[in-house]
UniProtKB/TrEMBL annotation, chain A:
It comes from Croceibacterium xixiisoli. NCBIfam families: ccoP. The gene is ccoP. The lineage of its organism: Bacteria, Pseudomonadati, Pseudomonadota, Alphaproteobacteria, Sphingomonadales. Heme c 1 binds at residues 121, 124-125, 260. Gene3D superfamilies: 6.10.280.130, Cytochrome c-like domain. This is Cbb3-type cytochrome c oxidase subunit. Component of the cbb3-type cytochrome c oxidase. Its main location: membrane.
From TrEMBL, chain B:
InterPro entries: 4Fe4S_Fe-S-bd, 4Fe4S_Fe_S_CS, Cyt_c_oxidase_cbb3_FixG, Electron_Trans/Redox, FixG_C, Ig-like_fold. GO terms for cellular component: plasma membrane. Residues 462-481 are annotated as: Disordered. It comes from Croceibacterium xixiisoli. Residues 250-282 form the 4Fe-4S ferredoxin-type domain. This is Cytochrome c oxidase accessory protein CcoG. SUPFAM superfamilies: 4Fe-4S ferredoxins. GO terms for molecular function: 4 iron, 4 sulfur cluster binding; metal ion binding. NCBIfam families: ccoG_rdxA_fixG. Keywords: 4Fe-4S, Electron transport, Iron, Iron-sulfur, Membrane, Metal-binding, Transmembrane, Transmembrane helix, Transport. It holds the Pfam family Fer4_5. The gene is ccoG.
């Protein structure tokens, strides 16, 4: 360091080293830069005191402000909850039959129902609510247990064949083949009659008789179904377990029965109301008034 | 400005404050005019009212970011029409090329905001501290109460102008009278205060202190201009063959014939807002404001020599004049292939924009088909597709629109507001003014319908009968696409 000297051309001191005649000027940092640097150091000290900073063995230092990203999230969620509270409170008070008349609340209910559907329902009914074999499609106009808002809400509340829920939709179709009620030939004849409703097979006198004796009580003389028992309409294009002759015969022989959990108790009433509104909005929802008249009718045609 | 007394091998020089002298002349008066016009446009435009009826704002020029509309007098631009703005920007670029190739850095010299505001702030300097010599004396004087008082009053005027400048900017983005009331009442959006603060700060710094350093060190345009100007461009030029060798009047009297017309009075440097000496030739520092022409012409008139020692001239003409020939007429500098091509490009884009603006449609339909599920089997065997259709009414009046389908003869449609029992082939919708109206439409075709392409059309049910269409696909079982 002995060779420090002032460079004549610039008037700046050199660092004192010399390599083959090359020297380096000891140009100081610009002052504004240096002060900015000091300011950042000061800021770092303040930050370490105020905010979580040092990782320790069990947990980090917490900072005197007590800030956490988790706490911030909780705050955001609470705020969001506050924002939604009046809408949810209003939804809780509106009877579901009145909802369609209130387009603002109906829209809110559909939006909320869409979110709840993605969490609770897509596992069986699919992301687009189009269902799978054995899991009903909720977009269409075919409803086993009713497609107006009230009926959908009822299904959501109590489920289908949910053990332990007295109000659940429960019905059982006899296993005509497995329990030996029909012979295989009879099953074939009944299947033919069932498929004849949609013109896919030719009916026989035996098949028609067997159907009238064993099936018409629930499914209706012309296969129109009955929502009281969740008996599917057989005279339409929609087949929950498939519409081929083999699939129909299998269902007559050893019917499968879908189960849907009752959501009462798992979801709050407002969420269930919103889910009903969403499912109703998918394109197949029925008007409550029309259906109310129909709901009184079934006794006439058991 | 870089200080002149620094050796050439030295790369770094300290900044020297430029104190341009007051000058009057035709270019100075032209600059006053441009300054008055540009400042009036900038500060005044948001206050111009324009009646658009009940459904649109009545501000003539308004960039409504929240509402996603851009209003300019009778023109209303929606976000998807932003190419108009892109076209305007391209026109501005080509216009800059055109002007630069013809008359050099006229943009820099007269109408660049940096130039206009620097000019304004330099007038403030003159108003508070006096002209060049007084300002230089005050600069050199030690700090005392008098100097402090002058500086504080000058900076306060700077600050007022800067604040007004920043404040005017936000008025383009909201209704001006409402925003001003909200601003002073403390109810304006935080972004309004932040924008005003930032623009006040930058105006204060750029106009009050950095001035010509912005042009010389920060702005890219002086670098690009070299490619835009050529030997046929009119630029501010010192005619050295006439001026050299420089000498004072006394020297010239003593040695007649030895000296040129330049009496070395340095007035051209004194009035220069960037402190450049035009006699050294064109430079990045020269913004071609032509104030040196005013100064030199005045001196030449006083000493009884012909004016135009410093003048707008092309480099080509300089060579011709040096050789004793007459310069080309100005027309030749302005009208040559390069400028004509620029002008044609500029005008062509302008005409195309005007044409597009005059013939654009104020009606739009866009269709998104549901993809999950792509189609739905109904209980009667028919096939249903669902679509989200958006109808855009870009007029500031409500319109009745008719939605129809073409290419699906058997299909019927219904919206989520009606039942399938009421399904129709055409659907009439009342769309509010200036709105995108979403529709949820279901389309059902009889059992066995194949999947195929079809068209949604929308027609306005008014005498103009504007129409638009959008292609869509009807999906059905067995659709492989």
């Amino acid at each position: 360091m002995a060779n420090k000297r002032i460079d004549e051309a610039t008037g700046t001191e050199t660092v004192g080293h010399e390599w083959d005649g090359i020297e380096e000027l000891d140009t100081p940092m610009p002052r504004w830069w240096l002060w900015t640097f000091y300011a950042t150091i000061f800021w770092a000290l303040v930050y370490v005191i105020l905010y979580p900073a040092w990782p320790l063995i069990e947990k980090g230092t917490e900072g005197v402000l007590g800030w956490t990203s988790r706490g911030e999230l909780a705050q955001d969620l609470a705020l969001e909850g506050e924002r939604k509270a009046p809408i949810l409170a209003a939804l809780a008070h509106v009877p579901i039959e009145r909802l369609p008349a209130d387009s603002v609340r109906m829209r809110a209910a559909i939006a909320g129902g869409r979110a709840a559907f993605k969490v609770n329902c897509v596992q069986c009914h699919g992301d687009g609510a189009a269902g799978f074999k054995g899991y009903p499609n909720l977009n269409d106009d075919d409803w086993l247990w009713g497609g107006d808002l009230k009926a959908i809400e009822q299904t959501l509340l109590h489920g289908i064949r949910q053990p332990g829920d007295d109000a659940t939709h429960a019905s059982l179709m006899p296993a005509f083949g497995r329990d030996g009620i029909f012979t295989p030939q009879q099953i074939d004849q009944v299947a033919g009659h069932v498929l004849s409703f949609t013109g896919k097979a030719r009916s026989t006198a035996e098949g028609a008789q067997l159907y009238a004796d064993n099936c018409a009580a629930c499914h209706g003389p012309a296969g129109e179904g009955n929502r009281l028992f969740g008996a599917p309409k057989l005279a339409d294009a929609i087949w929950l377990y498939g519409g081929s002759r083999a699939e129909v015969e299998q269902q007559i022989s050893a019917p499968r029965h879908g189960v849907m959990p009752s959501w009462q108790g798992r979801l709050d009433p407002v969420t269930i109301k919103m889910l009903a509104a969403y499912v109703h909005s998918l394109g197949g929802g029925e008007d409550f008034v029309d259906n109310a008249a129909e709901a009184e009718a079934p006794d006439a045609q058991p | 400005m870089r200080s002149p007394d620094v050796p050439a091998d030295q790369l770094f020089t300290r900044q020297v404050t430029v104190h341009p002298k007051r000058i009057d002349g035709r270019f100075r008066r032209f600059k006053w005019l441009i300054m008055a016009v540009t400042l009036a446009i900038y500060y005044g435009t948001p206050w111009i009212r324009w009646d658009r009826g009940a459904y649109a704002p009545d501000q003539a020029v308004l960039v409504d970011v929240a509402g996603r509309r851009f209003y300019m007098f009778d023109i209303e631009i929606w976000p998807q029409e932003f190419y108009f703005v892109a076209g305007l920007l391209i026109m501005a670029g080509i216009g800059l090329f055109l002007v630069t190739s013809a008359v050099g850095r006229a943009w820099c010299g007269y109408s660049c905001p940096q130039t206009v505001w620097t000019d304004l702030f330099q007038h403030v300097d003159r108003f508070v501290d006096g002209d060049r010599n007084a300002r230089m004396r005050l600069d050199a004087a030690p700090w005392g109460p008098a100097k402090l008082a002058r500086r504080l009053s000058k900076w306060s005027i700077y600050l007022v102008i800067s604040f007004w400048t920043g404040g005017a900017w936000i008025l383009y983005f909201a209704d001006a009278p409402t925003l001003v009331r909200a601003f002073w009442g403390g109810d304006a959006a935080p972004i309004a205060y932040a924008t005003v603060a930032v623009l006040t700060f930058t105006t204060f710094i750029f106009g009050g202190f950095m001035r010509e350093q912005v042009c010389i060190y920060m702005c890219p345009w002086p670098r690009i201009q070299a490619a835009m100007t050529d030997e046929k461009s009119l630029i501010v030029t010192y005619k050295d063959w006439r001026g050299e060798k420089r000498g004072s009047l006394k020297k010239a009297e003593r040695n007649p014939g030895q000296f040129g017309d330049c009496i070395d009075c340095n007035q051209c440097v004194a009035v220069c807002p960037t402190g450049w000496d035009i006699r050294k030739g064109p430079d990045i520092s020269c913004i071609t404001c032509a104030l040196c022409i005013d100064a030199c012409d005045r001196v030449m008139t006083e000493v009884g020599r012909p004016t135009g020692l410093i003048a707008y001239a092309t480099l080509e003409d300089c060579d011709r004049e040096r050789a004793g020939a007459a310069p080309n007429p100005v027309r030749k500098a302005l009208l040559r292939p390069r400028t004509v091509i620029y002008f044609l490009g500029w005008g062509g884009i302008g005409l195309a924009l005007l044409f597009a603006l005059g013939t654009r449609s104020h009606l739009d339909i866009s269709v998104a088909a549901d993809r999950n599920p792509p189609f739905m089997l109904m209980s009667d065997g028919s096939i249903r597709n669902a679509y989200t259709v958006k109808l855009r009414n870009m007029e500031s009046r409500p319109r009745a629109l008719r939605v129809a389908i073409e290419g699906l003869p058997d299909a019927r449609m219904w919206s989520d507001q009606m039942g399938r029992a009421d399904a129709v082939t055409t659907l009439d919708v009342e769309v509010p003014p200036d709105t995108t109206h979403p529709l949820r439409l279901y389309l059902a075709a009889p059992a066995g319908a194949p999947s195929r392409d079809f068209t949604f059309t929308v027609t306005a049910l008014d005498p103009q009968g504007e129409t638009d269409s959008s292609k869509a696909r009807f999906a059905a079982p067995g659709d492989s696409e």
